[in-house]
Amino acid sequence: MPWHVAGVSDTPLAVITGASSGIGAALAHEIARDGISLILIARRVDRLRALAETLPTEAQVFQADLTEHGAMDAVGSILSMLPRAPDILVNNAGIGQGGPFALGSPARDLEIIDLNVRALVDLSHRLLPAMLERGSGGILNIASLAAFQPGPNASVYYASKAFVLSFSDALHEELKGTGVTMSAVCPGPVETEFFDRAGMEGVRLRKAVSSMSAQKVAEVSWRGFKRGHRRIYPGLGAKMRAMTAGLTPTSMVMPVVKALNSEPRNTSD
To answer: CA 216: distance to chain centroid?
Structure first.
C-alpha cells in the first residue's frame, strides 16, 4: 500500500475516502482550492495518483479497500503517524446493490454495511477526539436522498444512507458549541459510476430523475459545510424531494421507489 507522510506540512489537512472518482474526486478539487492539504484514500491507487497531480495543494495517497478485514486498523495506524491530526474528514466512500434482497449477494450487502456504515463510524471515532481537543475542524458525511424512505430493490443501500443521516444529525447536535462541524450531504442521482457499480445500469431512476454533476454537488457540499449546515441539499429539487418524502405516507412512497429501482419491462415480441 503506497503511502508517504514525510511531505505533509503544518497546513490544514483533510482526509477523503472514496476519492478516486465522482463526488470524492470533485471534493478534493474544491477543498484543495482553499489551500488545504489532502490525504486521499481509495482502492484504485492509479486514479488517486493521477488526481493528486492535478491538485493545487499537497496530496498524499493511500490505497485501501475499507471493506476488507484489518483495513481500518491499517488506515488508523497510518493516520496516527502523521505530523498533525487531520482537521477534516470526508466520509464519501460508498457502494450499493440493486435488485430484490432475496436474490442479491449476501457478501455484497455486508460490504455495503462495512463501507457505508462501519468504516464511516470507525474513522469518525478515530479523528473526532483530536478535533474536539483543538476546538476546530469537522466531518462531512455523504448521505443521499435515499435516506428519507425505504428503498425496495435497493434495500440495504437505502437503509445504510438512513443510518448515515441519522448518525450525522445526532452528532451535529452533540457537537454544538465545540467549534467542530458535522454535516450530511443529501444529493439525488449524480453523474458518477454508482449505478454501473451497483448493477443498476438500466433502472428507471437513472433516466426518470435529472442527475447533477459531481462537481456541482461538491461545490454545494463544501460551501454548506464551511457554513456549518446540518443538512446540505445540492439543488432546490433535492430539498423539495426530501420534504415531499417526509410528508408522503411510506405506503405510498415505497411502490414508487420500487418501480424507479427496477428496469423497464420489455414489452416487445
So the answer is: 15
